[in-house]
Amino acid sequence: MFRPLLKYDYDFMAARRVGRFGFKDSEISKLGGKLKAFNKKHKADKNNPDLSFCRLPYDRDSVKQISKLARRLRRKFKNLVVVGIGGSDLGAKAIYQALAGDFANLKSNRGKNLKVYFTGDTVDPEPMADLLKILNLKETVFYIVSKSGETIEPLSVFLYLRQKVIKKVGYKKHSDHFIITTNFEKGALFEITEKEEYLIAEHYAGGGRFSVLSVNGLLPAACAGFEISDLLAGARAMAKNAKRNNQWKNLPFFFASLQYLAYKKRKQSISVLMPYAYYLRNFAFWFRQLWGESLANEFNLKNKKVNLGLTPIAALGPTDQHSQIQLYNEGPHDKIITFIKVGSFLNNFKVPKYKDSAAIYLAGHKFKEILNIEQRATAVSLMKNKRPNGTIILPELNEYYLGQLFYFFEMAALYLGELLEIDVFNQPGVEQSKKYMYGLLGKEGYEKDKKEINNF
Question: Is 267 helix (H, G, I), strand (E, B) or coil?
């Protein structure tokens, strides 16, 4: 069955619409000369672990293994709790919310599919206490994800949950309640996993923020009953598009080119993602990490100090029409906005008529129609104020188009890094704060960092 690609409407990004704040066709054509070289480089470097995310859409063997494991877990448990932070859980959260919504865990008719919960992204004790109040630990399996195996938040939460499960089911049975994804070489989590003989699924070779289509995102999705093969099929469709050497037809490259021109030519350093689909809220947070950690570097590939970076904003339409649009319309000309619009929803409701009321104009309009009108009105008002904005259009919100969307942004980040001449897989800026935390918590080898931070 033929399924089209998502679309990107860039009309309001163009100079013919927003004047000097928009792109010119000649600028795209000039950048297009680099596309073939980029694609050739990526193909030649295909065994680079950092680029292993490009191989994930084709990993059908993993789909079979993950599906088999998920079926086993669904027979034995009722709940899955993902314990992770950042790239270890943002993708899985985005998938679950997009496909299950916000209230799936309140339904009693989940069938054999597991209810999926998320923790480990904070050591604030209150959310943990609330989660434990609603979980039956005997019916719960915990999926611990940390590539390094040393990340403080999920490691702390894991150790606490392990103790709670042991008290509930006993030491001999507790290992059945834990599945670990980490590296196979080092780290506290790996050491504990080997000692306790927990089931381990190796973290894929690349970084966490590019891991959504690996076991990190696919196992929770499969446990929830989603078609993970469709997620990868959608990603493959976008991967095929990303192999094109035409700058106007390669959607991720074209999107990256507009972001690059906005940043380098017009000093538009803030990139706003604003879905007009309520259940894509967590997708916007996933995007925020991808953009924020991948596209900010002190040094470029020539080791020249550049301190460049695009600041990502996760917004939501129409909610943030009432909190941010004033800023976007009349504030500094330092932003580009990307909307996400969904063509078809599973449900649609009609506003009923209330006679003799000022609200009579709403009568008969369907919710989807109103949502689309709000998005269109916002886009046009921004354009009229010379604020560049584009719209990604998904035919519908399902596994296939979600897979396309994830891969679209991953490849766009890769292309944008190439254009900016930075390493999108390097993030040294997060390391120093970790060293200070290790020192203050008493980890061996970080005494110097403890002494340094205590001087402030």
Answer: coil
Query: Which of 99, 6, 93 is closest to 342 using CA atoms?
Result: 6
Spacing of C-alpha 114 from chain mean position: 22
CA distances 288 to 90, 285, 376, 392, Å, are 10, 5, 23, 16
Tokens describing residue 151:
């990340």
Q: What is the pLDDT of residue 93?
A: 98
421 belongs to the catalytic site: no
SS3 state of residue 345: coil
> Which residue reads 């584009």 in tokens?
390
Contact 345, 368 (CB under 8 A): yes
Q: Beta strands of 95-137 (E only): which ranges?
A: 115-119
- Which stretch of DSSP H or E encloses residue 255? helix 251-266
Instruction: Give the residues across from 237 on adjacent strands.
Output: none
Residues of the chain above pLDDT 70, percent: 99
Residues β-bridged to residue 88: none
User: Could you confirm whether 177 is annotated as catalytic?
Assistant: no
DSSP β-bridge partners for residue 142? 81, 178
The one catalytic residue among 172, 302, 322, 355: 322
Q: How far apart are the first and last CA of the chain?
A: 63
Confidence category of residue 46, pLDDT binned at 50, 70, 90: confident
Residues with Cβ within 8 Å of 274's Cβ and at least 6 positions away in sequence, in order, are 284, 315, 316, 317, 320, 337, 338, 339, 340
Helix intervals (H) in 46-89 = 60-76
Per the annotation, the verdict on 322 as an active-site residue is yes
Say if CB 190 and CB 203 are below 8 A apart: no
**Across 81-100, average pLDDT:** 97
pLDDT digits (tens, 9 = 90+) for 66-78: 999 999 999 999 9
- CA angle 196–202–203, rounded 5-degree value: 125
pLDDT in tens, 297-329: 999 999 999 999 999 999 999 999 999 999 999
User: Is residue 430 scored above 90 in pLDDT?
Assistant: no
| Full set of structural domains in the chain with CATH | 7-33+247-427 (3.40.50.10490), 53-228 (3.40.50.10490)
Instruction: Name the active-site residue from 153, 293, 410, 418.
Output: 293
The sheet carrying 79-83 orders its strands as 115-119, 79-83, 140-145, 178-181, 199-200
- Tokens for 432? 């120093």
Side chain identity, residue 395: P
Question: Closest by alpha carbon to 431, among 226, 257, 293?
Answer: 293
Using 50, 70 and 90 to split pLDDT, how confident is the model at 108? low
What backbone phi and psi angles, to 5 degrees, belong to 42?
Answer: -65, -40
Label residue 111 by pLDDT band (50, 70, 90). Answer: low
pLDDT tens for 132-144 read: 999 999 999 999 9
Report which secondary-structure segment, H or E, holds 380.
helix 367-384
